[in-house]
From TrEMBL:
This is Thiamine-phosphate synthase. The lineage of its organism: Bacteria, Pseudomonadati, Pseudomonadota, Alphaproteobacteria, Sphingomonadales. It comes from Qipengyuania spongiae. 2-[(2R,5Z)-2-carboxy-4-methylthiazol-5(2H)-ylidene]ethyl phosphate binds at residues 148-150, 178. Mg(2+) binds at residues 83, 102. Pathway: Cofactor biosynthesis; thiamine diphosphate biosynthesis; thiamine phosphate from 4-amino-2-methyl-5-diphosphomethylpyrimidine and 4-methyl-5-(2-phosphoethyl)-thiazole: step 1/1. The gene is thiE. NCBIfam families: thiE. Its EC number is 2.5.1.3.
Amino acid sequence: MSTNRQARDTGLPMTDCQLYLISPLDVSGNFPERLERALTAGGRAATAFQLRLKGVDQHEAAGLAGPLQEICAAHETAFIVNDDVSLAKRIGADGVHLGQGDGDPKEAREILGREAQIGVTCHASRHLAMEAGEAGADYVAFGAFYPSTTKESEHCPEPELLEWWSGIFEIPCVAIGGITPQNCTPLVSAGADFLAVSGAVWSGDEAEAVSAFLEQIRAG
Ligand SMILES: Cc1ncc(COP(=O)(O)OP(=O)(O)O)c(N)n1
Ligand SMILES: Cc1nc(C(=O)O)sc1CCOP(=O)(O)O
Ligand SMILES: [Mg+2]
């Protein structure tokens, strides 16, 4: 999940914001085919995919992860596990995403190793983001920028937070929460390195949605 922060340093327009797809809670049935469609839409694969399951035991989660992990590998998409460092280790995921109550990024690093991508939820907080950076996070996630039907949030950052973060720090920032092709442009312009998206992709035709996001990102 690297970015071209270099471009920002050279003063070139920052146009390479990337898509980070967050799974729905149910990834059974035809979800693997849907993921394949999403990752092949629009001429450019999403850079990262997060398996976000809740209340599923680890054995079952590992079984559900297998085919999705293969699809991500075939499309050079990082496979990130939400919440669960031990599941990430067990299945050899590319990384883990940790919320504020999901564990210590430093411990995750010890368990998963140097190459793992470790992301941390930072809500609308500069302080949490700086803490996450000091703890070795590979990205910090701010949200929810817009009302989300996937997850309730009491935090509501403004796009300026992305501008502030990316003006000072090299660690990539992720924008999340209610993001759609119609409302993403201010986040791209503010310097989001990744748009993390769930509902806007999986609630309809995933390929059309991904293509629409990529069009907006390129235009922004
Ligand atoms: C990229 C990204 N950002 C934020 C979250 C939210 O994590 P968390 O606050 O732990 O909430 P849950 O997703 O676990 O319900 C995320 N998953 N991914
Ligand atoms: C998982 C998650 N975390 C958020 C945060 O604010 O930290 S918002 C969110 C939901 C993302 O899904 P959608 O694109 O459907 O809103
Ligand atoms: Mg969590």
